[in-house]
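Researcher: Go.
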Amino acid sequence: MHASVKIMDIDVDMMSNDVFIQRMNEYLTDDHFDVILFASTELLNMAVEDENYRNLIERAELFLPGEEALLSTHHVEVLEAGDMVVSCKSLGLMLENLEKSGRTLYIVSRNRDRAWRLKKYCRKMQPRLKIVGEYTYDQEWEDPAIINEINSRTPDMLLLDLETGAQEKWIMEHSTQLNARLCLAIGGVAGLLLAEQKEAPGWIHRLHLEGLYQRVVREQSVKKGFRARIFRKKVVQYNNQIEEENKQD
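Model: Structure:
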């Protein structure tokens, strides 16, 4: 199943996890460089406010919900129960179900700590995946150098974790220069993905602070729910505004 929903007049692709996995495996067998964007609430807000940015993200092959907050007015619980892609967690399912062993991945991230955590996550999801390189934003950021570096490794997939806005602009500007098959852009939602995988550090265990640590983790889930309520309110306000404008016309 593949359809779309409009969120503040922006089409967001909706599909089952099975279809998503199938589509990713198909992308990895063709010669076209496909870009998949996992959208965040921040990204949607930027797209609504900036038409040029909106045109930029519309160039992606798939524009998927990267966090459940985006679907707060679309019965996200029902969609999740129906095994639909509702967040960036589907990235892990895709990695687990890669059809060909020995697939390669190159990571571009905003700093070395996030790059290391993303490598750990990807290897956990797919032990046969080969991480062939990484480039981090805290190094000197020169486009020709990073493009040459990526192309020299000829990865099947490029995992992009940069700031929202800069990430989408960079990948669309350089998509024709990159020697890869698939780009997965998760910069706006990577933090949510990594937070769910985060384990208590060893020093937490040594100080017997596991209970406190888990409370902090739970608080992050509360913040996620708060973010969903804020975004739902903004969507309702936007829809009401459009309705009023249509009445005046």
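Model: The radius of gyration is 19 Å.
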